[in-house]
Amino acid sequence: MWNKMRPLLISLSVAFNLAFVVFWAAYALPSRFQARERPANGEGVSCPLHRQLGTTEAQWREIEPRVAKFQESARLVCVETNRAREEMIDLITAPEPDREAIRAKQEEIMGCQRRMQELVVNQLLNEKAVLTREQQEQLFRMMRQQPGCAAHGPMTGRTGGESVCPGAAAESSGTP
Fold this sequence. Notes:
Layout: H1 2-32, H2 48-53, H3 57-93, H4 99-130, H5 133-145, E1 158-159, E2 162-163, H6 168-173
Antiparallel strand pairs: 1-2
Helix pairs in contact: 1-3, 1-4, 3-4
């Protein structure tokens, strides 16, 4: 019996862990993007990562709206992933679990994860088009060196406890 359940349990574990990371990012990142990190004069590059890359104000003006759009799109995918995850839990906890419905829900969750990955890839390609060759090399070197888990890493919004782009989402939405 264990051999029959093993693939399902592994799939569920992977799905839940990925869903957790996505869920965490959806709720943790917006709260970290606050205007308090914005330079006092209201100008300049508000993102610590992009300041570290030496992004110019002109580059940042081009990147910032894309970051805000990425964050909103990622939030929507996170919401959808969490809804599907909850539905899968309901399917699993049913007195007579429907394995086909569970598999279908797993596919739906993996579709959400593919969409999230596509968002990240598109964001990186968009930024790459704006950054200089040296900035690109530095960004990708940082990404290779940082773990890509929920706690740290350039794509999660935290680098050793510091948020990557505070203020980007807040400013584009008009919130302080």
